[in-house]
Specification:
3 domains; Threonyl-tRNA Synthetase, Chain A, domain 2; alpha+beta; binds zinc ion; Elongation Factor Tu (Ef-tu), domain 3; Diaminopimelate Epimerase, Chain A, domain 1
């Protein structure tokens, strides 16, 4: 048996009495009539109570509206049950319903005006108690168009145009904005002469009740644009929340909200410049530390200065700068130095040799590396790579044709 949908006749009906037809094994309560709007057509379902028990979900199945009583947290069993044949009192959460009606009617208006002004068709809509979005067939919507769209919608809201619902025998002869494939009687919702849409939803009586409509974020989705919007009290709450965020941000900048973007951009640029400067200083410091480490070894004259340096897990800019400082030490004539840096945790390595060291690093790696699972490459003066396993570092080091002096671990800044 189908459920008589009381909201079809009166969207403002908040309370009703009905007879329980059945209670499913899944707890679905079927009534002979209901003012509860089920989840459908992109609109969220109502909440409320039946015989004082909270209704957590309302769905539709064929012609039937099914009400699910909410289970309190814990054992998952509804606090109250109803039985077939029982007369029950139902009450819908009016604040939530009216908010959804405002958004639903607001969406009709927004869709109509977007199409009339720009030819953008509505591809899909989504409306819940938290957010409302509309996807328009436009690849890009600029700020000026959004502003105009919002202004036009609000102008129509202020005009308080009547929203009428009529049932027609068929779609024939009706100027619907979007053609319908439905056969038989058709429920058509009209906003003055602006829009005629086949729709089974709940709407306000006149556009003035939408209150206002504010368009939020615009997001490109494939070849469409999704617009967020809010109506009535929700728009006011959103505006209040957003102005709160702006005030908080302004307090951080010790400025006024209208200057936040400018100040944030200036600080971002300053931070980028400082980060760059810091990286330069860190590199210089690492290079200097490399030179100091070389000097501390005390190698003089023609002696080849060979050292190994162990670092924890990565060989980055600082380690490369250290090796450069070690091998490019000014004033050492002839400059004969080799530094091998190894990262114990990852098996990464870097070998740097000064031009007068008389050692071809690339040739060494080509010869010794493949057998030991080393991957990498470079030039005769600098190679870098990684062992298949960190344990492979020791055998690789053992193939170097000279002994290495161990540098203190991570002797950088
Ligand atoms: Zn509708």
């Amino acid at each position: 048996m189908h459920t008589e949908r009381l909201y079809y006749e009166d969207c403002y009906l908040r309370e009703f009495t009905a007879t329980v037809l059945s209670v499913g094994r899944d707890g679905a309560v079927e009534l002979d009539r209901s003012a509860f709007y089920p989840e459908s057509g992109g609109q969220a379902h109502d909440l409320g109570a039946i015989e004082g028990a909270a209704v957590g979900r309302v769905t539709e199945h064929d012609d039937r509206v099914l009400h699910f009583l909410a289970a309190p947290p814990g054992n998952g069993v509804p606090a109250k049950t109803v039985s077939p044949g029982e007369t029950v009192h139902g009450a819908i959460d009016w604040e939530r319903r009216f908010d959804l009606m405002q958004h639903h009617t607001g969406q009709h208006l927004l869709s109509a005006i977007a199409e009339d002004l720009y030819g953008w068709k509505t591809e899909s809509v989504h409306m819940s108690a938290e957010s409302a979005t509309i996807e328009l067939g436009a690849e890009e919507i600029g700020e000026a168009s959004i502003e105009r769209l919002e202004r036009e919608v609000n102008r129509r809201i202020q005009e308080n145009l009547p929203v009428r619902i009529a049932t027609h025998a068929s779609a024939e002869g009706i100027r619907l904005r979007k053609a319908t494939e439905r056969f038989g009687p058709l429920r058509v919702v009209s906003i003055a002469d602006l829009d005629h849409s086949a729709c089974g939803g709940a709407h306000v009586r006149a556009t003035g009740e939408i209150g206002s409509l504010a368009i939020g974020r615009a997001e490109r989705i494939r070849k469409n644009t999704r617009l967020e919007f809010a109506c009535g009290m929700r728009a006011a709450r959103l505006a209040r929340r957003q102005s709160g965020w702006l005030r908080e941000a302004a307090a951080v900048f010790q400025s006024s909200p209208d200057r936040i973007a400018e100040l944030a951009a200036a600080q971002r640029d300053e931070l980028a410049a400082l980060s760059k400067r810091l990286r330069t200083l860190e590199t210089q410091e690492s290079k200097r530390a490399g030179g100091d480490a070389r000097r501390a070894l005390g190698a003089t004259g023609n002696a080849l200065c060979c050292a190994a340096r162990r670092v924890p897990d990565a060989i980055g800019d600082a380690e490369r700068a250290f090796a450069q400082g070690f091998c490019e030490r000014a004033g050492a004539e002839p400059n004969r130095a080799i530094l091998l840096t190894v990262a114990l945790a990852t098996g990464a390595f870097l070998l740097r040799a000064s031009p007068e060291a008389g050692f071809d690093a690339k040739a060494w790696l080509l010869e010794a590396g493949p057998h030991l699972g080393a991957k990498g490459g470079g030039t005769p003066e600098m190679i870098s790579g990684r062992m298949a396993k960190p344990e492979g570092l020791a055998p690789l080091i053992a193939t170097l044709p000279f002994p290495l002096v161990e540098l203190p671990s991570v002797a950088t800044i």
